[in-house]
Amino acid sequence: MDNQSARRITRADVARVAGTSVAVVSYVINNGPRPVAEATRLRVLAAIEQTGYRPNDIARALASGNTLTYGLVVPDISNPFFASMARALQREAFNHGRVLLLGDAGDDRQHEHDLINHLLRRQVDGLLYTSVDRHPWFDLIRNSGTPCVMIDTIDNHAGISAIRVNERDAACQATRHLLQHGYRELGIFVGPLTMLNAQDRLNGWRDALIEAGITPREEWIFEAPYTRKGGYQASQKMLQGPRPRAIFTSNEQQALGCLSALAEHQLRVPDDLAIICFNGTQQSEFSVPPLSAVEQPIDAMARQAIAMLATGTAQPELHEFAFQLHIRRSCGC
Predict the structure, then answer these.
(1) 131 and 112 in contact (C-beta within 8 Å)?
(2) What distance in Å separates the CA atoms of residue 131 and residue 127, rounded to the nearest whole number?
(3) Partner of 208 at 20 to 30 A CA spacing, among 79, 126, 217, 312?
(4) Phi and psi (nearest 5°) for 96?
(5) Are the CB atoms for 4 and 51 separated by under 8 Å?
(6) Bridge partner residues of 129 (DSSP)
(7) pTM beyond cutoff 0.85
(8) What is the predicted pLDDT for the residue at 66?
(9) Tell me, what's the pLDDT at 128?
């Protein structure tokens, strides 16, 4: 088969080596629809191994009406939370006989639109989606008829299935934990306020302060990208004036950037500033000090999301998951 190594091996090549017809090769590969004598079947299998033939799954899938692929669109795959979620979703998709195609929007709304269009043109069997901002491309997805599961807070009237945790409640409980330490001067690093999840986390922080009889101080609300650089720059701004005693950061990356800035100023965590963050991952365990963090049950969420796509329910579903508050040294515990 040396002269065939420069081209794709076909079923005709297998049939020639096995001394049978292409139809018989197809029956062996597809387990039917017609029976094949055992001796012939063994010859075909030996020919497949000899030639290195691989069935064309794309052609088989298109013939059956599905592509055995799911699409995933996330705002920024460099964010460890989205990387962890993508890994869990890929594992679950594979368990369901699907391959996951990843689209990284790079925090760009137009690029997100183009990625969704690209995946829909590839006729993915389902779409998993976290939007860059508060305006997901719902009409585009609905008009395609492709099943979709949102991974995040969405408009309850959007008519699209979703999995999520209650981010407002999670932010509230994280802030309550800081209050339980006796801290009264609390700030927040909030994500871009064009994003629904940033608003939820800000409102949760406010809820806890108001519940404790504390008036939120607007000068201690620092808007920043969900990145280490964003957390670092927000910290530098915070340190230019009277600083809070504790800070809730709206994601882990902001918290890590904050740790770096504080170290530059010889400020200690939690002695000089206590920190708790949202969307902690394994990185939170290995920072110095380890970060107290709200963590989402990523594996359970991934299993549910893929199961929702696999069943293809006609009516939109919303599954809300309980979050966990992992307490470590950064908050003063």
Answers:
(1) yes
(2) 12
(3) 79
(4) -100, 15
(5) yes
(6) 73, 150
(7) no
(8) 76
(9) 96
Measure the CA–CA gap between 299 and 165, rounded to whole angstroms.
13
Burial pattern 274-306, b for ≥16 Cβ within 10 A else e, equals bbbbbbbbebbeebeebbbbbbbebeebbbbbb
Residue in 15, 114, 121, 134 with CA at minimum distance from that of residue 73 = 114
SS3 state at 138 = helix
Q: At what angle do helices 22-30 and 11-18 cross, to 10 degrees?
A: 110
Nearest CA to 225 among 261, 262, 189, 172?
Answer: 189
CA–CA separation, 104 and 275 (whole Å): 29
For the stretch 97-132, pLDDT in tens is 899 999 999 989 999 999 999 999 888 999 999 988
pLDDT in the model for residue 134: 67
Low-confidence ranges of the chain (pLDDT < 70): 1-7, 56-65, 134, 153-158, 313-314
